[in-house]
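User: My instructor asked us to take a sequence, write out its structure as tokens, and then describe one feature of it. I'm not sure where to start. Here is the sequence I was given:
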Amino acid sequence: MVVTVLRKSRREVDAGRLQARALRLLELLKLPPHSELNVLLLSDDALKSLHRKHFGLNTRTNVISFGQWKGGFSEIRSLAAGRLRGVPIPLGDIAISVDRARAEAEAAGIALDSRLTQLVIHGLLHILGHEHERGGPKASAMRKAESRLFEAVHGGRPGVRNPNGGNA
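Assistant: Let's start with the prediction itself. The structure tokens for your sequence are:
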């Protein structure tokens, strides 16, 4: 498994720790051993620009994910067992605003690396097909998965709410 963390923000971040946690997430989720994931640590302005370009929303956000496979987790596992057996499988990209993550961490009284871990989990679950935008059972399942994964890689409860509703 390969996780690449690209730091384009001037903020101090322990990219190695975040990379190790992301790798652990891939293992916990039993993703193919040749999976690849990119995590981009950006400024608030850079993420807002991506939000506008790819989603048509001229608003700030904390995390955006870009999955490579429309079928999410089931498609990834099927490809890994079939025609892409042993071939690197790019899962996608997770782009995070370090500025926004820092502000949210401070407001919640938690460490920045905890908040970044939460946002990687949130983005990865979206890449794997989870969603929360419409509420209901799918949103509840995503929140439970976020909590379970956070506890497994970090220990403790996430404890921060997304200002737009839901966790992360």
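For the description part of your assignment, you could build on this observation: The radius of gyration is 15 Å. Try explaining in your own words what that tells you about the chain.
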